[in-house]
């Protein structure tokens, strides 16, 4: 069998673009980490080192910064769609472009109880993400859009159990009807439309996920994930599927009995490793798959 | 000159204690990373490997967990003072104990606009810290107490300049009268009392620091640090000194001129390295120094 | 369209198993980070919280540690194949098991020029990886095996150029015929056999990759990746494909002209972000694909 | 008591200078992370925002890069001494300069068994460090020089015990006469001369430390640290003191008894946190202290 070039792409990863809107005294800030990757007729660069069809990664960087002013940066999904379309539409040899964005949220500081016009602290909670793959031109154009977040660290101190599991010769775990359940949640959802109010949708999905985590009496992290996903899909008909990756951040009950001290689910060791890791997809039956949507470039999104 | 054993200490670092209060349906959570280090008559362990005066680091760990229940964990300064006193008072060979604490804040989630009783997300902003050094017994007892925070990421998009600086043959920097100023601030303050309302004091100091950062028109990060420190010392007479370490997280104006795009302080590159790093102490004149207060054990606090 | 459970798996991630062989005075050490994930008839855990078909992640952990003694740990590919087969063969509801391994290499210290029997320093260079997916039973059994490494930081100070590239209105980059080329390479290769001398094959592939990087005059990182992959596939007929992910760790020539100092490719700034990121697959034509082989669970492998 | 400005300094941290020597076909590489901090007559910058005595941190950066060519970069101690002296000698308001350096070692790759002229892999073991504080002018000039390393990860699989320790009511630990001992060692030594062969001295000290760790039958990590330090001071009379910080990276024997599997110090869990942390200084009696030598600026060195 011949040896050939297979799947390939290239681009510039992790451009740290900060965009300030200052048209009035009340400034606005958007703070992103954006990466672009191109697929296309690039075989000659690999096979013989011919760069004549290669738009440099430095050029992709310049474009990412300039677009934050030229086109604006108000929703990361819109920004990513415009940047992706630019590469496909203006660079002859590009067949598809993937744009991945992390967004870091800032919160206005209070001065005497009033929000300040131009000072913020970094919010520090979940990182919002978007990944857009723009492919083809004209009638063949497709836009695969992923929204989501990562690193939402959430914990409930009761309302979670784990019992009735399968046992084999390596099973030492004791069942529990009351435990701490905590995770650092990654959630990614796929849109079937680009005619979306991106900001309110993001907040709405996050609200559903958090409220379900809080209020569902959990028999397992698996069940919690499924119910969160189902609730999101019921609420937003333009979401085709949602994927979760949830490390079970173990909080082990600390044994204080040797010291004569009661520990009624009050003192825990927050362990680092190993951790349970649960993955789940909740999806509409018969929705056409979109594998390119999920083909992460940087591993960050 | 003879070769001798000099300064030494040992302990258990980074115990991840999570304490849930669940006496009512409305739970409370405290989440800390606590380290302990002991000084004392330990030369024989170093010189000849004799452990008979060495309380194992594992024992220190057990005590840290148990004290979060036995004594409670409501203010990290109080918890650290009690844990430190325990080692000095109960272990014959211990002359002083240092307890370092990082605290991770959690925020109740909202369900239909109401705070939930037992679910939180990690707040994710600054990490609160405390470092306590308890030395000696009886009338000779001293308690050196540091409070503070690290990693408060704060940014202002105007109201900061940098001009009129010294120039030499390696100076290329252009002065600017309007720039983004951002830092990831570390602030540590030394108490001269242990009769303090720790929680309200922490919030009060943080409020002063943030408000000063926001409202002072800054001629340099140095000036901002000094004014923040001065305002804290003016407000709290039981604070003897405050130390800042402030990386100048450079946001470089991105050059869009080659593309015919105006950039009126609107698009920046948030650079990683190198960074300016400014240190300042603001202190009461003639206050006796307390070098042991600042002698960090883990480097975390 | 109905809302249904899609793809899912669960397991225990990042078990830090250290295995010492001490049958003679000359000990051996293997140091791994192993994760397991199971797919199977687990829908009830997600849909209704029924755990009766769920082997706990804690049990998976116990098995990972015990197998390092029961079966031994000499090659990570063999260990992963045995651990994966165990879950599929002994747990009724498991249809496939994925085992991901990172291995940290240790190097014997020298004492008076002689290798010590039981003391090592961590080698600290690339992390070797393996990922095995064992699916089905009996005649339907398939074993997808990936070997590889990550974080091989390699640099050449000449013998690399980048010229003749495509330009558009955002292109500022100047061509260069002599630059530093550096990357932190990830390489993963897929085996079509399990009858492999894993240790010598690993060393042989790494040798080819390093030697190609060193000796090929590079017209682009793309070309270097392709030539490395081609050389590996030419040498090992049981390798079906190899995938590279290569961040272009930019070393920018530092401008010393303002100081009257020549810089003939002698002084560079090693920049952090952004970075070029090049992906390439080199593959045998007509080899059947094995998507499950590449379906990373932890993101570490 | 009046509120005043106390100790302060400022500079540029983490300049990533890479220096290639290419005078012959066999290139050489030095790869450092260098930081500079200045003390002096800078009160006006803090008190009133007057920058007229402030040499910008950007200027310090330019100088650090340029000096790697102008003065060369062969030993980090020499480079740091020259850079520090430059700031003190040429900038009127500077009273002292501290230069901190991390050095990342590279190893030539082999091609057909021969070292390549211009290709290296990053060595990845300990990071060498230096910290120099240059103070005053003319006859008052002092040079405090620290050399050392951090993150030397070293492990012995036998020849270590821990018994006979003090017990109290929180003591659960069992004594052991055979355990794994591992640490990620930080060692810093203070020179009393600048007339030193820096490269051979570094290698010699590292050799002594490693050989002592390997060959000493250890009754405690404390004892191992002391013996390492004593051996270094006996070998180098221009070393005044050496300081160690040694996390006890616990390798806990894994309990395989429930599975009927023997574990004769063969299978361990490499735990992350908490960890024992041992600090020791070995010093020549009556050597004058040099507190400025140890006053870390970046926390990296």
TrEMBL record, chains A, B, C, D:
Reactions it catalyzes: urate + O2 + H2O = 5-hydroxyisourate + H2O2
Broadest EC class assigned to this enzyme: oxidoreductase
Pfam families on file: Uricase
Pathway: Purine metabolism; urate degradation; (S)-allantoin from urate: step 1/3
Alphabetical UniProt keywords: Oxidoreductase, Purine metabolism
UniProt-listed Enzyme Commission number(s): 1.7.3.3
GO molecular function: urate oxidase activity
TM segment ranges: none
InterPro entries: Uricase
Top-rank lineage group of the source organism: Bacteria
Family, as annotated: Belongs to the uricase family.
PANTHER family from the UniProt entry: URICASE (PTHR42874)
NCBIfam families per UniProt: urate_oxi
Function per UniProt: Catalyzes the oxidation of uric acid to 5-hydroxyisourate, which is further processed to form (S)-allantoin.
Name of the protein in question: Uricase
